[in-house]
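Q: I'm writing up a methods section and want to include an example of the input and output format. Could you take the sequence below and give the corresponding predicted structure tokens, formatted cleanly so I can copy it straight into the document?
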Amino acid sequence: MRVAIVTLYPSDPQRIAGGIRMVSYNLVQALRRYPDLDLHVVHCHSDISEDAHIVETLEGAREALPDRVLVAPSNVSTAVGSGCVTLHYLAMPKQRLVPNLMTSVWRVRRLLRDLAPDVVHAHVGQYAWAAVSAGLPTVYTIHGVLAREREVYRDTLFDRWRYGLLAHYEARALPRVDRLVAISPYVREAYSQARARWQRCAPTERRALWERIDNPVPQAFFDVTRRPEAGRLLYAGSITEIKDLLTLLHAVERVSATDAQVHLRIAGRSTSPAYERLVRDLASHQALRERVAFLGLLDREQLLEEYARCAALVLSSVQENAPMAVIEAMAAGAPVVATRVGGVPDLVAEGETGYLVPPGDDAALAEALRRVLRDPATATQMGARGRQVALGRFHSDQVAQAYYELYVRVQRDHE
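A: Here is the clean output for your methods example:
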């Protein structure tokens, strides 16, 4: 069975930026163990400057393919059963949002028609539309609720255009995909009203069925040996408005008044230069200057070390679905302090695997941080319970099996 996974995918698997890239990479690695899968990954994004088609072996060796092999699908089959995967990186210029996004949809659709997969698994809405408009059986995993994200990113004309166009493509795709995958109950709730509109507006279209599948995390995170250090807090994620790092810094400043050991380590890239400047300006204030470290984008081993040594993972977002940082921290056995938004309450059990606080409330966040830092024994118990939850829900082998079975069902529906 040929499966094309159309997603955001890392060009460097050692340094993975963004939750969708992490989810996609973890899933692809776990799907390689299925001997009847011919896996193709399609990544079209402005971070790619030149097209490349690459066969990657299970051992990580890569061999470039010339473009001409894409003329016939039979020429681009990987060695089925060998654990190989074919990666298709398609360039997309950085400027001129509207024409370039439209061109990228057209390019992905053309490649998918050449590949002729049995099933397409899309992880972003515009490429779900590319798949269904090519007439291909399509599974669409929804990673973010666009309507809620638009409420955060609305200050600039660029963001308003970008989210408007993304919402347009998603709305066209939703009535026509074969299956919708919710990575949290929050997704189904957020899209329930939209689904009613699809059925009224497009009654003759296929009505997508919902599947509930969690995000995957690999064995390496479960193998972490915890060595928590007093006062050491970890934030893992992008530096951007939706993560509300300003509230987090204010909370750390509050904690520092009573806990001389507290310090925050920020691991991740910036996706919003203007917001990053605000965050760094606040972090440079006297009370925080020696307490905040900006680590940048870490590789896998460095990230595992951070999870091993943190006293807790902290997430101060105003909007989330099923954040990978929380799932990874749970797998690694670290307690979590996070805001009660989106799908986070489905991950973190209050008082059992961590603490939940209202978004934008630095006083409540500071109090939760004090609780976890002042009681290491309870924090250890929370982390252990979180690891057990993660093992039962998020292990990449278990998630890959759920997707494999879904692909088989969708293929059979179209036979």
